[in-house]
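Checklist before submission:
- one chain only
- standard amino acids only
- sequence pasted in full

Submission:
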Amino acid sequence: MEYQPWHLKYRPQLLKELTGHSLVTRTLSNAIKERKISNAYLFEGKSGTGKTSTARIFAKSLNCRESAKPTLMPCGKCLNCRSIEAVSSLAVLEVDAASKNKVEDIREII
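Returned file contents:
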C-alpha cells in the first residue's frame, strides 16, 4: 500500500463532507441544484482552510461524466473526476495565488 499524507488520505470528496463552511457549501449546492453556474469562482482564505478541496469537489460536481448534468454526488472514478483530482484536467484551471499574486500574472493566465 502506497503511503499517502493524512490530509490527502482523508480529504473530503463531496460538498456535504466539508465541515465549517456551511454558507459556502449551501451556496455551491444551490447553484448545482438550480443550474445557475457562474463562469468563474474565486476561493480565498488562509492556508489550510479547505479552498482547494472545495474547489476540486465543485469542479468534479460540474464535470463528472457519470451524470448528464451537474451533480451533488460526483463519482470520483471517471476520467474527468480523476483528472481534476490529479490537477491535469483541461476543463479546470487551478491557480495558486501564493505564487500568482500580481495583476500581470492573472492577465497572462486570462
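Reviewer check: The two ends are 40 Å apart (CA to CA).
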